Amino acid sequence: MSWTDERVELLTKLWGDGLSASQIAGQLGGVTRNAVIGKVHRLKLETRVKTLGGAEIVREETVEIETEVEVAGAQIVQIHAAMRSVPRVAAGMNAATAFKLEEPDLPDLAPEVPVDPRRPSGEVVPIARNLTLVQLTERTCKWPLGDPLSPDFRFCGNHSDESSPYCQYHARIAFQPSSERRRLR
DNA sequence: CCCTGATTCGC
DNA sequence: GCGAATCAGG
Question: Per the confidence metrics, is the pTM higher than 0.90?
Protein backbone atom coordinates (compact mmCIF):
# COMPACT_ATOMS: atom_id res chain seq x y z
CA MET A 1 0.00 0.00 0.00
CA SER A 2 1.18 3.50 -0.73
CA TRP A 3 0.19 6.86 0.61
CA THR A 4 -2.24 8.03 -1.99
CA ASP A 5 -3.89 11.39 -1.63
CA GLU A 6 -6.99 9.68 -0.44
CA ARG A 7 -5.23 7.71 2.25
CA VAL A 8 -3.31 10.74 3.41
CA GLU A 9 -6.52 12.65 3.61
CA LEU A 10 -8.15 9.94 5.67
CA LEU A 11 -5.12 9.73 7.87
CA THR A 12 -5.17 13.45 8.49
CA LYS A 13 -8.84 13.38 9.22
CA LEU A 14 -8.71 10.48 11.65
CA TRP A 15 -5.62 11.76 13.38
CA GLY A 16 -7.36 15.08 13.80
CA ASP A 17 -10.30 13.26 15.27
CA GLY A 18 -8.03 11.90 17.93
CA LEU A 19 -7.93 8.29 16.89
CA SER A 20 -4.83 6.40 17.92
CA ALA A 21 -2.24 5.36 15.38
CA SER A 22 -3.21 1.73 15.60
CA GLN A 23 -6.86 2.52 15.14
CA ILE A 24 -6.06 4.60 12.09
CA ALA A 25 -3.88 1.82 10.76
CA GLY A 26 -6.82 -0.49 11.20
CA GLN A 27 -9.10 1.82 9.30
CA LEU A 28 -6.68 2.31 6.46
CA GLY A 29 -5.60 -1.26 6.22
CA GLY A 30 -2.35 -2.48 4.81
CA VAL A 31 -0.26 -0.42 7.15
CA THR A 32 0.97 -0.73 10.69
CA ARG A 33 0.66 1.82 13.41
CA ASN A 34 4.33 2.56 12.96
CA ALA A 35 3.71 3.48 9.37
CA VAL A 36 0.93 5.76 10.46
CA ILE A 37 3.06 7.45 13.08
CA GLY A 38 5.93 7.82 10.67
CA LYS A 39 3.66 9.39 8.10
CA VAL A 40 2.13 11.70 10.64
CA HIS A 41 5.58 12.98 11.50
CA ARG A 42 6.57 13.45 7.92
CA LEU A 43 3.40 15.37 7.32
CA LYS A 44 4.31 17.42 10.34
CA LEU A 45 0.80 17.31 11.65
CA GLU A 46 1.38 16.47 15.25
CA THR A 47 -1.25 18.52 16.89
CA ARG A 48 -1.45 15.76 19.41
CA VAL A 49 -1.58 16.74 23.01
CA LYS A 50 1.99 17.40 23.96
CA THR A 51 1.36 18.99 27.34
CA LEU A 52 4.69 20.73 27.31
CA GLY A 53 4.68 22.80 30.43
CA GLY A 54 1.51 21.49 31.88
CA ALA A 55 -0.95 23.46 29.83
CA GLU A 56 -3.52 20.86 29.07
CA ILE A 57 -5.26 21.06 25.79
CA VAL A 58 -8.66 19.51 25.57
CA ARG A 59 -10.10 19.45 22.12
CA GLU A 60 -13.75 20.21 21.86
CA GLU A 61 -15.88 17.77 20.00
CA THR A 62 -19.25 19.33 19.59
CA VAL A 63 -19.99 17.99 16.17
CA GLU A 64 -21.47 14.64 15.40
CA ILE A 65 -22.15 13.97 19.01
CA GLU A 66 -25.79 13.29 18.43
CA THR A 67 -24.94 10.99 15.59
CA GLU A 68 -22.43 9.12 17.66
CA VAL A 69 -24.91 8.66 20.43
CA GLU A 70 -27.45 7.40 18.00
CA VAL A 71 -25.05 4.89 16.55
CA ALA A 72 -23.93 3.73 19.95
CA GLY A 73 -27.50 3.48 21.05
CA ALA A 74 -28.38 1.38 18.07
CA GLN A 75 -25.52 -0.92 18.85
CA ILE A 76 -26.68 -1.27 22.39
CA VAL A 77 -30.03 -2.32 21.07
CA GLN A 78 -28.30 -4.86 18.91
CA ILE A 79 -26.39 -6.16 21.86
CA HIS A 80 -29.64 -6.41 23.67
CA ALA A 81 -31.20 -8.40 20.87
CA ALA A 82 -28.18 -10.64 20.58
CA MET A 83 -28.28 -11.69 24.17
CA ARG A 84 -31.56 -13.42 24.56
CA SER A 85 -30.32 -15.30 27.51
CA VAL A 86 -29.91 -12.08 29.39
CA PRO A 87 -32.70 -9.78 28.31
CA ARG A 88 -33.08 -6.30 29.76
CA VAL A 89 -29.37 -6.02 29.96
CA ALA A 90 -29.19 -2.84 27.99
CA ALA A 91 -31.99 -1.30 29.93
CA GLY A 92 -29.60 0.18 32.43
CA MET A 93 -27.52 1.86 29.81
CA ASN A 94 -28.17 5.38 28.78
CA ALA A 95 -26.87 7.42 25.92
CA ALA A 96 -24.18 9.03 28.02
CA THR A 97 -22.72 5.72 29.00
CA ALA A 98 -22.88 4.43 25.49
CA PHE A 99 -21.28 7.54 24.15
CA LYS A 100 -18.17 7.02 26.16
CA LEU A 101 -17.48 4.01 24.03
CA GLU A 102 -16.95 6.17 21.03
CA GLU A 103 -14.63 8.68 22.64
CA PRO A 104 -11.25 7.14 23.44
CA ASP A 105 -9.81 10.55 24.26
CA LEU A 106 -12.22 11.40 26.99
CA PRO A 107 -10.53 11.02 30.34
CA ASP A 108 -13.41 9.24 31.95
CA LEU A 109 -13.50 5.88 30.27
CA ALA A 110 -14.52 4.17 33.45
CA PRO A 111 -16.03 0.84 32.55
CA GLU A 112 -19.42 1.48 33.96
CA VAL A 113 -21.10 -1.85 33.83
CA PRO A 114 -24.82 -2.24 34.16
CA VAL A 115 -26.03 -4.85 36.53
CA ASP A 116 -28.93 -6.99 35.63
CA PRO A 117 -31.52 -6.27 38.28
CA ARG A 118 -32.56 -9.89 38.26
CA ARG A 119 -29.07 -11.05 39.03
CA PRO A 120 -28.18 -9.66 42.41
CA SER A 121 -25.25 -12.03 42.36
CA GLY A 122 -23.45 -9.17 40.76
CA GLU A 123 -22.96 -10.59 37.34
CA VAL A 124 -22.07 -7.80 35.01
CA VAL A 125 -22.36 -7.36 31.31
CA PRO A 126 -19.27 -5.76 29.80
CA ILE A 127 -19.66 -2.82 27.50
CA ALA A 128 -18.44 -3.77 24.07
CA ARG A 129 -15.53 -1.92 22.56
CA ASN A 130 -17.30 -2.15 19.22
CA LEU A 131 -14.21 -2.91 17.20
CA THR A 132 -14.22 -3.40 13.48
CA LEU A 133 -12.91 -6.59 11.95
CA VAL A 134 -9.51 -5.18 11.18
CA GLN A 135 -9.08 -3.99 14.73
CA LEU A 136 -9.31 -7.45 16.20
CA THR A 137 -6.22 -9.09 17.59
CA GLU A 138 -5.46 -12.49 19.04
CA ARG A 139 -6.72 -11.39 22.39
CA THR A 140 -9.83 -9.41 21.60
CA CYS A 141 -13.29 -10.85 21.95
CA LYS A 142 -14.72 -11.80 18.60
CA TRP A 143 -18.33 -11.86 19.66
CA PRO A 144 -20.23 -10.28 16.76
CA LEU A 145 -22.54 -7.36 17.26
CA GLY A 146 -25.22 -6.47 14.79
CA ASP A 147 -25.71 -7.32 11.16
CA PRO A 148 -22.56 -8.57 9.43
CA LEU A 149 -23.82 -7.00 6.23
CA SER A 150 -24.18 -3.60 7.84
CA PRO A 151 -21.32 -1.10 7.88
CA ASP A 152 -22.05 -0.75 11.57
CA PHE A 153 -21.17 -4.35 12.18
CA ARG A 154 -18.75 -4.61 15.09
CA PHE A 155 -17.22 -7.04 17.49
CA CYS A 156 -17.22 -6.99 21.26
CA GLY A 157 -13.48 -6.42 21.34
CA ASN A 158 -13.00 -6.75 25.05
CA HIS A 159 -10.04 -8.69 26.29
CA SER A 160 -10.33 -12.36 25.59
CA ASP A 161 -8.79 -14.98 27.75
CA GLU A 162 -5.83 -16.79 26.35
CA SER A 163 -6.77 -19.50 23.92
CA SER A 164 -10.29 -18.19 23.76
CA PRO A 165 -11.88 -16.21 20.97
CA TYR A 166 -14.22 -14.54 23.41
CA CYS A 167 -14.07 -12.44 26.51
CA GLN A 168 -14.98 -14.10 29.74
CA TYR A 169 -18.55 -13.00 29.47
CA HIS A 170 -19.19 -14.05 25.90
CA ALA A 171 -17.30 -17.27 26.37
CA ARG A 172 -19.95 -18.26 28.87
CA ILE A 173 -22.65 -17.60 26.34
CA ALA A 174 -20.79 -19.26 23.49
CA PHE A 175 -19.75 -22.37 25.32
CA GLN A 176 -22.67 -23.51 27.33
CA PRO A 177 -22.60 -26.90 28.96
CA SER A 178 -24.49 -29.46 26.91
CA SER A 179 -26.45 -30.52 29.89
CA GLU A 180 -26.97 -28.72 33.08
CA ARG A 181 -27.39 -30.78 36.20
CA ARG A 182 -30.83 -29.82 37.31
CA ARG A 183 -30.70 -30.75 40.91
CA LEU A 184 -28.75 -32.98 43.14
CA ARG A 185 -31.34 -34.83 45.05
C1' DC B 1 1.04 -7.36 29.72
C1' DC B 2 -1.61 -4.30 27.24
C1' DC B 3 -1.44 -0.12 24.99
C1' DT B 4 0.27 4.79 23.43
C1' DG B 5 3.43 8.06 20.52
C1' DA B 6 8.58 9.28 19.33
C1' DT B 7 12.76 8.36 17.19
C1' DT B 8 16.24 6.20 14.50
C1' DC B 9 18.13 4.53 10.43
C1' DG B 10 18.61 1.07 6.63
C1' DC B 11 16.21 0.67 2.60
C1' DG C 1 9.77 8.92 1.61
C1' DC C 2 8.92 4.75 3.97
C1' DG C 3 8.31 1.87 8.06
C1' DA C 4 10.38 -1.91 11.23
C1' DA C 5 12.83 -1.81 15.23
C1' DT C 6 13.43 0.34 19.12
C1' DC C 7 12.74 3.50 22.81
C1' DA C 8 10.02 5.74 26.44
C1' DG C 9 6.06 6.05 28.83
C1' DG C 10 0.94 5.02 31.02
Answer: no
